[in-house]
Amino acid sequence: MPVPVINIAQMRAWESATWAAGQTEAEVIRRVGKKIARRARKLTSSDDLILILAGKGHNGDDARAAQEFLDGRRVEMLAVTNPDADLSKLEKALHQKPALVIDGLFGIGLNRPLDDGWKKFITAVNESKIPVLSVDVPSGLNADTGETFGTAIEAAVTLTVGVPKTGMLAQAAWPFVGRLEVAGDVGLIPCPLAGELNWTLPDDFENYPPRRAVAGHKGEFGHLAIVAGSFGFHGAAVLAVRAAQRAQPGLVTLFTQENVYHAAAAQLQSAMVKLWTPDTKLLEDASGVLIGPGLAALDVTDQMKTIIRRFWRDWQLPVVVDASALDWLAAQQTMARNAIRVVTPHPGEAARMLNTTVALVQADRPHALREISRRYGNCWVVLKGHQTLIGRTEGGIFLNSSGNPHLAQGGSGDALAGFIAGLLAQPALQADVEKTIRYAVWQHGAAADELQAKRANWVVEDLADELGNAR
Predict the structure, then answer these.
(1) Can you give the pLDDT at residue 416?
(2) pLDDT tens for residues 145-179?
(3) Among candidates 17, 145, 153, which has minimal Cα distance to 80?
(4) What is the Rg, in whole angstroms, of the alpha carbon atoms belonging to the chain?
(5) Among candidates 418, 67, 21, which has minimal Cα distance to 236?
(6) CA neighbours within 13 Å on the CB side: how many for 133?
(7) Cross-strand partners of 198
(8) How far apart are CA 37 and CA 68, in angstroms?
(9) What predicted TM-score, i.e. pTM, was given to this entire model?
(10) 64 with 78: CB under 8 angstroms?
(11) Which of 115, 156, 288, 394 sits a CA distance of 20 to 30 A from 131?
């Protein structure tokens, strides 16, 4: 199950309940150390040097506990109690060019500004440009607010204990937190807390999508219609179709404009391609529609926009809207009762939908998501970007845990929209829309992670091929 995002006081209460239940701090520290070591081994190679920076609190205890499990690595431990006196030791250790620094200087208990000695110490770590694995929270970061206590470690990966803390998700914290991962199953009792924000875990999708019946046929798995592609932007339509196919609906049909028909059709085999005309009627047997990828050319007609608004308003089947078509939707429009509607804006598109600025969207992404959903008929919103959000007007909001900055390529969003629509076109996956969308977003990011682990120069065409393959 996803885990809640909590504040420091809630984390302390959870820990206290764990000790009251009979668990020992020593055992939790040992398990955390084991998790740290496991992640550190994945970030390094055999015989690499790892430098552990251990402060005098429990965060330092966690970092020290990792040493026992770092077999196959060379380890140097630096116990840091006086930053002024220990700075020369740090510089000497960094001069050896370790492959990784494990940051266990300060935990979530830090509540005061750092003095100049600590600022110099942390700055020396950051200026070395050596990858850092921070334990629980980057040292110097306020885990409640996301602001620093003067400066903070700039981690490549932060392995937080139990669940994420609220401040780590703030935009101000992103440069310090790096990739946020959760060390679960460390001996704490099951988290007794719940909140608005929830962190997606890979285990949430165990045995999902459900296994298909052995005698299933393509008629049972849906027919997705995709309205996409315009002059100069036919590639977006092709990427959306290919990604939709990786979701494995029974059939996919692309409706595109005449001036890009041949360019798009020549790149597709099993998908059907048909002309979009003003009198086009979508398939009678369609079970879902995606509208928007590549509809950015100036020759997209007002008539087409009007027809697409009608789909959004009247269709009983799932409708996913992406890219340029987001600008065509009418706010405060009554829709078919209980119909599945999904929008997938990036921050710039979200700002236009809300008639605001990107800065304001990014400053409070959960609020932006809620407001888009409210204005557009309680639709599901996939607010793309770092830690993509999934949710709607009420209920939980889910942060995606997968993905990396190399998703910032043209066509990445088209692939995501296609994959979401390809799943939602399948009747069996419409029963739990929330889980289906969350799964699609997680797969999109996990596919990028798999590709990045294999090669540094992958492109979105590779992403479309990899979608749905992560486990």
Answers:
(1) 98
(2) 999 999 999 999 999 999 999 999 999 999 999 99
(3) 153
(4) 24
(5) 418
(6) 27
(7) 4, 398
(8) 8
(9) 0.95
(10) no
(11) 115
